[in-house]
């Protein structure tokens, strides 16, 4: 394909996907209690619309987006709000959450109706997508409507649907593409309309033939400028910036957004969620999650209601095997180990790895860097992790900035290849906040300096004008052509 | 012979330029030093250093008229950075020039109490207060540097410092 480009670095890893893709997608059981953290998306937390004791219906909005980067929340069950209180969540130990007791009646909220998206203007459609509580389902949970609105600055952007699920163990997007390709294609049409997009590309990896087949069949029935593109299954081919480079041959500026170069990237799961909201009137109340690893008896992909306890999901998959070492949310490269399974599923949870000892790569003690350079060969952001490591240790912020610490996507490739077992990604993640604080302070100082200087200039100009006026007046009064000589 | 004389003349001319160069560039190098010092200052423009803003203080340091320990908003980090730049022994900030709150703060106007006198607007070194005569004033929190210069002029004491969000 024209315009494609190879991405620097990356790793070919064992995908470990067969385990969870053997059985078809199925619905998970609905738990008696749902916990919805108000800050489970990127941006500011949502504001509750309900009080404890209120009766809610399935799909009813229970929290409203607070600012332009925030997301609505809807009740995934019908029942009664039992509390609004801090609860333990995967991202935080005391996340303020709406707790809903399920009455099992599945009464649907009647106000959620399908709409004809073609009759809406792009801005109205974005507003409607926001009301569906749709966030990016690839893992970052960035509110979709906010992302679409940010792309309004570019004329006819290129929509890229990300189906390149490159991280090992995760297979929820693959199952979605295999079984619900029509949803993805419908969602793509909605997103194209919302963006006034010139064209749309669905990017998938080259190791998912069934998904490719299903998407091709779904695309055959629809008219539109939607094409299918394939990328090599190299981790992290599905990183937003990496995918844009490999599909469109463009590089997103380090301090910019894809929208700055006329690209918008959305996950295929997000497109399917948009389709269900627009076509069926069902807001984002469930998502597909891969439950996998040697520590679970029946690995599978399940469609789970948001807010379901992880323990109940594992129980749905046959429960724990005997030898369980860790519970990981996310994939094996970027996932985080959880302390307990009494946590709710979030909109961003794409995978749950119940790891047995055989699944985990044992990590030895950290040894000194031997300057082999494997990490910089593997880095998909073309950084020099070995250099960043030195400067992160010494806290040398000018050097960290110069070497592009903030461009690190925390993919973990450098960790994986490091023969000295240095926890590089962890160091970089720890060094980022301090650097960001410094850069913000500097930006504010620059702004303050500019305002101070412009004020000084204005005051000087005003004083000069005042003096000129006085002199003019004096000249008129004395009738003299030149001002009197002497001290000012 | 001619070539040798020409070479000698060229060398003499070159030497003259090299010897005169420091005098020509002295002012520009001092300007550059002022810029570099100014870059290290926090740009609060609070005047606690006894100068009328960060740039005047930078100028005074460059001329040797002020010490490096006079900037409370910058704190010991700024004093250390200045010492590093100027090749001097590190110093802590002299508490006589003031002590800053541990958390960054911005000015806040109790709007119902404001009488619209514009005194705070005139005092603000970065134009971060909006309002007009006999109309309520308010602080643009994102542009407030927390210099506290607006607090003393207020005749009704309706300005206070609040933690920056």
Question: Rg of chain A, please?
Answer: 27 Å
Got a strand count of chain B?
A: 4
> Total number of helical segments of chain A?
14
Number of helices of chain B: 4
Beta-strand content estimate of chain A = 15-25%
* Oligomerization: heterodimer
What about the largest sheet of chain A? 6 strands, mixed
Low-pLDDT segments of chain B: none
Strand content range of chain B: 5-15%
Global morphology of chain B:
elongated
Q: Percent of residues of chain A in helical segments?
A: 25-40%
Widest beta sheet: strand line-up of chain A:
1-14-13-17-15-16
Structure description:
The complex is a heterodimer of chains A (488) and B (165). Chain A has helices spanning 18-21, 122-131, 144-150, 172-179, 181-195, 209-220, 240-248, 268-280, 310-316, 374-378, 385-394, 397-402, 413-417, 424-478; strands at 26-27, 33-37, 47-48, 55-56, 61-64, 73-74, 79-89, 92-102, 158-163, 199-205, 226-231, 263-267, 286-292, 300-305, 326-329, 336-338, 351-355. The radius of gyration of chain A is 27 Å and the shape is globular. In chain A, the strands form four sheets. A six-stranded mixed β-sheet of chain A has the order 1-14-13-17-15-16, sandwiched between helices. In chain A, strands 2-8-7-4 form a four-stranded antiparallel β-sheet, with no helix packed on it. A four-stranded parallel β-sheet of chain A has the order 11-10-9-12, sandwiched between helices. By secondary structure, chain A is α/β, with parallel strands linked by helices. With 165 residues, chain B is mainly α. At the A-B interface, helix 14 of A face loops of B.
